[in-house]
Amino acid sequence: MVQFHEQIITELLEDTNGGLVILSSGLALCKLISSFISLHHSSQGSLLILSASLSQKSQISYHLLDHAAQNPNPNSDHPVTVTPAEITSDLPAQNRYSLYSSGGVSFITSRILIVDLLTSKLPTSLLAGVVILNAHLLSETCTEAFIVRIVRSLNKNVCVRAFSDRPQAMVSGFAKAERIMKSLFIRKLHLWPRFQVYVSQELESDPPEVVDIRIPMSKYMMGIQKAIIEVMDACLKEMRKTNKVDVEDLTVENGLFKSFDEIVRKQLDPIWHTLGKKTKQLVTDLKTLRKLLDYLVRYDAVTYLKYLDSLRASESFRSVWIFAESSYKIFDYAKKRVYRLMRSDGVRLSVVDNGKLSKKRKVKDINNEAIGEANSNVTVEEVLEEPPKWKVLRDVLEEIEQHRQQKDQAGEDHSEQDSGYGTVLVACKDERTCMQLEDSIKHDPSNVMHDEWEKYLLSKVELQSLNTRKKKDAKQPKGIGMLNGVAPVTVGQNSEGSIINKQERDALLAAASRFTNLKKIDTDGGDVLEKEARSGGIGRGRGRGKSIGKSSNGSNTRTRSKKREADNLTAEDMRNRKPDSEEEQKNETEMAAVSGFTRSTEGKYSDKPVLRQHSYEAEVTDAINAKPLPPIHFHALETQQEILDFLKPSVIIVYHPDMTFVREIEVYKAENPSIKVKVYFLFYEDSTEVQKFEASIRRENSAFESLIRQKSIMMIPIDQEEQCLGLNSAVDPLGLSLQNSVTRKAGGRKDAEKEMQVIVDMREFMSSLPNVLHQKGMRIIPVTLEVGDYILSPLICVERKSIQDLFMSFASGRLYHQAEMMTRYYRIPVLLIEFSQDKSFSFQSASDIGDDVTPYNITSKLSLLVLHFPRLRILWSRSLHATAEIFASLKANQDEPDLAKATRVGVPSENGIVESDVRY
């Protein structure tokens, strides 16, 4: 454990009331929580952990097991379970009660805990404390605040501690940290940024050795990045014309790395339904362009081109950014990174803005075989630009292995603590990049690019066949009300023709046919290959400008092709393949052995998990100047697994820079001072990758500075518990008016007020309305209801719908069934349509409301629903608090609901008779 973790735990234990802890991202929050949990004793009571994600649960359990292995305590009179138990809805009530009373630590969901508290299945006297993770996701009306209010009202000694490692999210709203602390009845805020004195001193006392490598981007990558930024600027200018949002400060230079698309969406959210299609699409386009910038430095050229083609095919008929002035450069440069168009006489061609082929320059004569009449003049020349980081990564790995060999020759001590020894960890953003980097190191990088190129061409063939089938099906005109009975063809249906012209498309299909022929030749055997070689070759093979017929080592080429194909096969592909002959079955068995799959007796392949290790003898030994490489482990940062403590690497290569992972490396080095850690950072020079990494650090520092200022002026009342705790905290305004009224009944004396009760369905605790109703002084009774969501009285049943749920219920037909059941069993069925407080109180703008009834209009659907169910009442609520006021007014002159009858409504008895049917 690092020392600043001990100081945080000491500060938390000194205050029995609890506190809110906000750390910098990457400072081992799960380790801190596991260390805090390990100090818990069963005699103190149970400790419940709320709002933990799956990755946080696994990390906390792992660290607790590790701590128990290092610090055994067999003499303890009250041993605590090593790993926390997980309380789910599958556990019966008796098992949950035994876990509550055991005094151990348990993970539990908010919905289960609030239901057990309201039904008195959890005695609060057995609770020692509540730990809430991801505090930045909380609000005043969340279920966690509901839980804490009930627990503290029944047992003031329960300690509540909340944690968060997302300081940027804690300053997103007005005084968000202060409001969260008030809702959790916490008085102390603990801030631990990276620049805190104790943290910086410990992490910088013995820092790891850092090598910063700046890699220049290729010419076309720079062109694509510049074009994307120009398109983003054009989209912002279009948004300024709408006069709906303030984007004066959100320029591309200032707001590119501040998630300005999310900021703009937040500003437009209250009036989102009143905006036009173009403005909504501009917000979506900003998000798409941000992805294009990210994928440019993450993926290879072929994958990036494939993603662009999919975007143009799916969004070309509605996107705004595609029609920007600089957008054609993005597609043009992306194509130039992958292939060039050549004429049979050796003239290089390119697609210009008007869609026609133009001559570029003349190159040497290349022998190409004409395949078909459509592409007899145009062929495809492969470029397949490799990512610049691939070569640098291999050079770094070779340098590490060379350093190890020099130490071996010098006879030095080979300890795992020396830099250059042990496993090399390569950190990437996603799993796909990890697999591709592994293939580029295991095989020749050009072979990996050729495999991606082959997949790209085969996808073109599949898309062409799909479009052909659509054209055949569309021969007979269908539809109603269209001119001459012919349906207009959208751009999405003819997307391939909008991407490239006919000659370029036919050239790509011809290249795909060549790859198909190569696969057939490899399957049939070497006789056909030799026959084709004697006849003059079959065009371009996998090499750059080389044909298989002219290759002197055709058998080796074919063997490597088979092996690459076998390595790229997935388990599902090998299960679906059926050998046509004994020879193919034999070849299939060999490829399965190479790729790591085994064949069962039923003829299927089983993809058992095996340890994947790099083998460099098969592929890399054929390359020129091939050098041995050290053992490598690839790690995807998106998995959020703490690989450093498990792997104990001595050399770390950060392929995709990430601020959180950098902090994790610093903590790992501080916890293991004996290990000499060497870190390589691979940055693209003058790229958005560097600016985004630096901006993330600045954004976090500014967030902590804002929190420090808020802490200095924060005002939390000392008596907030006495003001807010208890079920009678909210006084009915009607009661106050009746107390002051003068009546003739009993000398003005008022009858004792009854406590309002509301029967709530279990599923409704996913929303915040039960919390608000409880704040208003109503008693919440959670049960499982077959009909309705809220039972206010024996006559009133309410079905609550948010805006999103209302649209989904109309689309699925579920609302019709729910309305039918309510009108069948209750005298006053009510449909409550609840809006969000920060959004406009209307479905759509007045200009969008038409005179005719249309099947896709939400207003028309509501009108038809009311006409079909005349007794159905519709209530419109502006917010959660408005809903609570409406419920209080509805219950003013009504009897309290009967729990036994409400649970039997809609449930048939043993004789099959359903009670309380009020149909006329």
TrEMBL record:
The keyword DNA damage applies. Belongs to the XPF family. Its main location: nucleus. Pfam families: ERCC4 (PF02732). GO terms for biological process: double-strand break repair via homologous recombination; nucleotide-excision repair involved in interstrand cross-link repair; resolution of meiotic recombination intermediates. GO terms for cellular component: nucleotide-excision repair factor 1 complex. Residues 757-837 form the ERCC4 domain. Keywords: DNA damage, DNA repair, DNA-binding, Endonuclease, Hydrolase, Nuclease, Nucleus. It is found in: Nucleus. This is ERCC4 domain-containing protein. Residues 564-589 have a biased composition (Basic and acidic residues).
